[in-house]
Amino acid sequence: MGIAIEDLAVSYGGTRVIDGLALAIEPGSFFTLLGPSGCGKTTLLRTIAGFVPAERGHLRFGGAEVTHLPPHRRDIGMVFQDYALFPDKTVFENVAYGLRARRHPDAAVKAKVGAALERVGLGHLGARHPAALSGGQRQRVALARALVIQPQVLLMDEPLSNLDAKLRIQVRETIVELQREAKITTVFVTHDREEALAMSDRIGVMNKGRLEQVGSPSQIYREPATGYVADFVGGANLVEVETVTRQAGEIGPIALDGIAITARAPAALTPGRAILVARPEDIIIAEGHAQDALPATVAHRQYLGGKTSYKVTLAGGRVLAVDLQSGAHDRFEPGASVGLVFDPTKTLVLAS
Ligand SMILES: Nc1ncnc2c1ncn2[C@@H]1O[C@H](COP(=O)(O)OP(=O)(O)O)[C@@H](O)[C@H]1O
Ligand SMILES: [Mg+2]
User: Fold this and answer.
1) Pairing between strand 307-314 and 294-303?
2) In this predicted model, what pLDDT tens digit does every residue of 36-81 receive, in sequence order?
3) Cα 87 to ligand 2 centroid, rounded to whole Å
4) Domain locations in the chain as residue ranges
């Protein structure tokens, strides 16, 4: 069942948090809302769920208007960051809750809950209470509870944030597997770009209550529409430059510190001031003053195992981040004069 949002506005006590938002989510797809804290992700998710009223606009599930339906009539399952399990109920009864509320007979409850717990790898823990589970296990219970009612839409608000790095990846894989298997339309909220890139069919990057860009993970990463998206999704270097490039797709020269470097324009530009977007891994450091390289000085080096992160200072004083694969090139000492070479197909120039 697809989700369509049209001209949505949401306020808290007179303060607009979401204004004029439109979004279409394909049936059966995994859609992620990605953005920094406070940008309105939870508000949008809770409006889709029906816990926060829409002040204006329309919300449709499978073409049917649900804008004014209460949450229990929207056929949704929800998973929250803090699990929101009933502490005084067993794992089994937590998962059974939605089925009992819908008056399913005991035998059906037993079979469905058993299968749901089995599916998340907790078949043996039905009799435990949530307090006796690890964080990862609790979130699996919450996932089983959301899915056991076979909802049309699954909504998840930062469900992995409270888990440590290793568990986060395990539960992440379980979520993606279950979603693909059940082909349930899913809206997943996170501020973690790696999570968003790894899990999603499509990502909507949010900024101050608006969707700044919607696209596939590779579109969001490789063709960011704005400096904000490039920075949030990839920690890109953003530098103001002068350009004569005009056409979308054109690869042309741009002027930076008096040196011409080559970059690609994913969208049309007005010649003049623009933003150069260069991800740390798309810049190469060359020894000395190679021709066409941008002169810089190594300011800082950090060895991170698989890669080494450098901070380099340009002649004009700007500092750029450069990541090199550790190994052969991992040899530039702080203070060294170097040249920077930008990958012309990956370095972008965007409207400022
Ligand atoms: N219940 C509330 N009452 C008033 N303001 C709120 C409430 N919930 C969130 N906000 C405000 O709305 C904005 C968006 O919040 P939220 O949707 O929680 O963002 P996110 O989930 O992206 O961190 C923030 O400025 C936040 O302070
Ligand atoms: Mg939130």
Assistant:
1) antiparallel
2) 999 999 999 999 999 999 999 999 999 999 999 999 899 999 999 8
3) 23
4) 3-222, 236-351
Q: What percent of the chain is modeled with pLDDT above 70?
A: 99
CATH number, span 3-222: 3.40.50.300
Return the CATH class of domain 236-351: mainly beta
126: which residues sit within 8 A by CB, 6+ positions away?
90, 91, 92, 95, 113, 114, 117
> In this structure, which residues have their CB less than 5 angstroms from ion ligand 2?
42
Q: What is the Å distance from ligand 1's center to 38 Cα?
A: 6
Cα-only R_g, the chain = 24
* List of the chain residues with pLDDT < 70: 245, 328-330
Q: What is the pLDDT of residue 253?
A: 83
Alpha carbon separation from 180 to 133, 176, 177, 215, 315 (Å, rounded): 26, 6, 5, 19, 51
pLDDT on residue 58: 97
Ligand 1 atom 24, closest CA: 38
C-alpha of residue 108 to centroid of ligand 2, in Å: 35
Hey, whose CA ends up nearest to atom 21 of ligand 1?
42
Supply the pLDDT for residue 330: 65
Between the CA of 96 and the centroid of ligand 2 the distance, in Å, is 27
Protein residues with CB under 6 Å of any ligand 1 atom: 12, 17, 35, 37-43
Which ligand sits closest to the CA of 46?
A: 1
